[in-house]
Amino acid sequence: MKLIDNWRCAWRFASVRAMSAALAIQATWLSLPDDLRERIPLWITASVTGFLLIAGLLGRLIQQTGPDGTPLR
User: Fold this and answer.
1) How far is CA 42 from the centre of its chain?
2) Distance CA 48, CA 32 (A)
3) In Å, what is the CA distance from 51 to each residue of 33, 48, 56?
4) Residue 21 and residue 53: Cα distance in Å, rounded?
């Protein structure tokens, strides 16, 4: 296994940001008390997480550029 050449810039990738947001939503969901979790339908959390994961996959397929127009990957 080999890291990508510009792994230090990975936080700029849309895919990394989307996957991080999905992880944050799931971690927040698990840390909520049961009474509060019952008020929020599970399908909302699952749908938002699923959307972010699909966005992350698409972000890996789309060429991303920095502010100066150079490719990030």
Assistant:
1) 19
2) 17
3) 24, 5, 9
4) 9
pLDDT tens string 10-31: 888 888 999 999 999 999 999 9
Distances, alpha carbon 31 to alpha carbons 11, 25, 34, in Å: 25, 10, 9
CA distance 2 to 12: 19
User: How confident is the model over 34-65, as pLDDT tens digits?
Assistant: 999 999 999 999 999 999 999 999 988 887 77
Question: Residues 6 or more apart from 30 whose CB is under 8 A from it?
Answer: none
CA distance 59 to 9: 15
